[in-house]
């Protein structure tokens, strides 16, 4: 992924201290259940008498059943996940189509696992994930969001990982919300709707990775039409 400069400049020794074993305890941690138990969700739900099915949930600005929440979130554009302040992976919006290929692969058995168990221990995967978590936990350089595009060299695809610091009503860090989506279809729709197009900016000092091995889309191209 492509990192912003402020993230690249972080102290490696500092962010590697993030506890990806989730060995601490959050105020909402469900204790007494192995985090890596593939049945963690069912066991934790039973232990907490969690609402389910047609049970109503009073939200800050609405009243929905658990079923309604699930249906809405499963049909929301993009892949969503939530990790708490103890680095425990607690939720993702499982696709409606069980055969759909996710851009950031998750499976139900991972729910409840630590961040260390969810991420593969290959190369810089764990250090990179720790860097993002640590940055948002401490609002590094004042930032509460991280945009991480995945270079593909394809001008008709831009997979974006968007990470957002989540706070409680008092401003305390409670976790991270992640949204993963190919944003090209949104850009394409914008251009088609507004009558604009995309063209290559030869003077740009960014974006070379995305232009490699690809040709611009002649119909949606990269700036506005002349005169707009």
Description:
This protein is α+β, with helices and mostly antiparallel strands and 228 residues long. The protein has a single domain (5-210), classed as Beta-Lactamase, CATH 3.30.450.20. It has eight helices and seven strands. The protein has helices at residues 5-8, 12-15, 40-48, 66-74, 115-118, 125-137, 184-194, 208-211, and strands at residues 56-59, 62-65, 79-84, 89-92, 145-150, 159-167, 173-182. The strands form two sheets. The chain has a five-stranded antiparallel beta sheet. β3 and β4 form a beta hairpin. The longest helix has 13 residues, at 125-137. The two termini are 33 Å apart. Residues 217-228 have low confidence and may be disordered. Residues 207-228 are annotated as: Disordered.
Write the topology of this structure.
Layout: H1 5-8, H2 12-15, H3 40-48, E1 56-59, E2 62-65, H4 66-74, E3 79-84, E4 89-92, H5 115-118, H6 125-137, E5 145-150, E6 159-167, E7 173-182, H7 184-194, H8 208-211
Antiparallel strand pairs: 1-2, 3-4, 3-7, 5-6, 6-7
What would a concise description of this structure say?
The protein contains 8 helices and 7 strands; from the N terminus they run αααββαββααβββαα. The protein has 228 residues and is an alpha+beta fold.
Strand order in the sheet with the most strands = 4-3-7-6-5
Structural category is alpha+beta
Instruction: Tally the beta strands.
Output: 7
Number of helices: 8
Named CATH architecture: 2-Layer Sandwich
Radius of gyration: 20 Å
Number of domains: 1
Mean pLDDT figure: 89
Q: Given this structure, which CATH class is correct?
A: Alpha Beta
Quote the distance from N terminus to C terminus: 33 Å
Helix content: 25-40%
What letter string, H or E per element, gives the SSE order?
HHHEEHEEHHEEEHH
CATH-level-4 superfamily name: PAS domain
The percent range for strand residues is 15-25%
Please name the CATH topology.
Answer: Beta-Lactamase
